[in-house]
Amino acid sequence: MSWGCGLCQLLAGGVLLALLAQLVRWLRADGDLTLLWAEWRGKKPGSIACLQTSPETELRGKVVWVTGASSGIGEELAYQLSKIGAFLAISARREDELERVKKKCLQISTLTEKDILVLRLDLTDRSSHEAATNSVIKHFGKIDVLVNNGGRSQRSLFMDTNLDVYSAIMELNYLGTISLTKHVLKHMIERKRGKIVTVSSVMGIMGAPLASGYCASKHALQGFFNSLRTELTDYPEISIINICPGPVQSKIIQNVFTENLAKSLENSGDQSHKMPTDRCVRLTLVSTANDLKEAWISDHPYLAVCYLWQYAPTWAWWLMNRMGKRRIQNFKSGLDAENTRESGLPPSCSFSFAS
């Protein structure tokens, strides 16, 4: 009997140690635990290293089309993909900025001029998407990965915001994205393989004040791509991957929608407390290489809120209501909504989200 009790105590202690290790790992995490496991070991059980499923091995030589590639996450994606050795199609509205990105890609990689296609694209001009897709296919012969990264965020209260702003957000972030996806997916279905990666946001999982339209567009993308995935069960080699970043150091905040289409944001605020763009992009590429259906990429406390919203939504509502009041007060006072230094809040209480 004493031997059995000792064994039970030993097993209980082992379980507690394992749980403690997971808790420590989670507290230090900058992505969900599935993603961090994929970064460490890859998706293939029993592999000693992640070489089989690292971006360097999975994406080298692949044709990757990145939208919104003239700045922020899209620009950094172009740089990291070029270093890996992926062939690139980069798109945005500003062709001169795309040429700048291409020039740097050529400087930091072994790619040649023909390996990078600059393709001006307006996501709101849906009539141009078929021709753009055909241009990429004509140039490279295929499209292995589409990264839907183009879009804009928002900073305005619903009652102050014109409805045409909401129409513009949905036209760009949602309808433009699924329009382009439709044309690229047709090509992937013909080849029976491919990856469609959509840069959503943690706001596609939760809600937050001052971004109701942006949040709605990201919820729409999450619902659409989660549904699309269920329609592609006959094509197991076509992956639908949703990336949900939290606050990232990018220029998205400088180009946000406000209460009317003609107005720009006056104060973009300090970005230094946010996740570095290169880290966000690295984890995005890990998610892509490992075919993760959904990845949360964020530091705490934003990552913690994702888990709270997923598993304890009542607590999440309570917490967001409290933090949301301060965020709105900052905004109305002329401060950046996420400026915790001037508001007197500690950084861990700043709730601002941007992809």
Describe the structure.
- GO terms for molecular function: all-trans-retinol dehydrogenase (NADP+) activity; carbonyl reductase (NADPH) activity.
- It holds the Pfam family adh_short.
- Belongs to the short-chain dehydrogenases/reductases (SDR) family.
- By secondary structure, the protein is of the alpha/beta class.
- It has one domain: Rossmann fold.
- The protein contains 12 helices and 7 strands.
- Helix 4 packs across helix 9, helix 7 runs parallel beside helix 8 and helix 10 crosses helix 11.
Topology:
Blueprint: H1 2-27, H2 33-41, H3 55-58, E1 63-67, H4 72-84, E2 87-92, H5 95-108, E3 116-120, H6 129-140, E4 145-148, H7 163-191, E5 194-199, H8 212-231, E6 238-245, H9 277-289, E7 294-297, H10 302-311, H11 313-332, H12 340-343
Parallel strand pairs: 1-2, 1-4, 2-3, 4-5, 5-6, 6-7
Helix pairs in contact: 4-5, 4-9, 7-8, 10-11
Beta content:
5-15%
Find the structural class using helix and strand composition.
alpha/beta
The outline comes out as globular
How many separate helices? 12
According to CATH, the fold-level topology is: Rossmann fold
Order the strands across the largest sheet as they lie in space.
3-2-1-4-5-6-7
What CATH architecture label applies? 3-Layer(aba) Sandwich
Q: Report the uncertain regions.
A: 44-51, 339-355
- Overall number of strands: 7
Average pLDDT taken over every residue: 87
What Rg, in angstroms, do the CA atoms define? Answer: 21 Å
Tally of separate domains = 1
Main beta-sheet annotation: 7 strands, parallel
Order of helices and strands: HHHEHEHEHEHEHEHEHHH
User: Please, what is the CATH homologous superfamily?
Assistant: NAD(P)-binding Rossmann-like Domain
N-to-C span: 58 Å
| Fraction in helix | 40-55%
CATH class: Alpha Beta
InterPro entries: NAD(P)-bd_dom_sf, Sc_DH/Rdtase_CS, SDR_fam, SDR_family_member_7
Pfam families: adh_short
GO molecular function, one term: all-trans-retinol dehydrogenase (NADP+) activity
Keywords: Oxidoreductase
